[in-house]
Amino acid sequence: MTTLTRLGMLLLTAFISVTVTAEQKVEFEGHELHYIVLNTTEIPPQVAEQYDIVRSGKRAFINLAVLRQTDDGYGTPVSAEISAVQRSLIGQTLDIELAEIREGDAIYYIGTFPIINRETLWFDVTLSVPNGPDYEFSFPQQVWQE
């Protein structure tokens, strides 16, 4: 199994775990934005090394995926121009550098950032899909150091 496949499986597992409790997605004009924020210690060491991701209990990552809605309900991954900004409750902001990762037909956008334990952060996501709408979305997430 390739490292990229392992990362895809990790991210899929993360999406499935979140879906069981509360699916983290938002729908907009025939598309879906799926999002999740986890500690970087959730990434296997070999995968982190391949993608130059620092694994640390004091760092988290955001994973974003955009799907075009389909009649079968599964959706088709689409590439997007996408950006994410992290905001603290006291107004500090940090642009999150996102890397596009492709695994077969899957397309993910992942970025990492430092965290403080039990901090609630806001994430402002802006995206544009080819031949589709521009979209802005914000969501809060509490993060924990490990």
TrEMBL record:
It comes from the Bacteria. This is DUF4426 domain-containing protein. Residues 27-146 form the DUF4426 domain. The lineage of its organism: Bacteria, Pseudomonadati, Pseudomonadota, Gammaproteobacteria, Oceanospirillales. Residues 1-22 form the signal peptide. It holds the Pfam family DUF4426. Keywords: Signal.
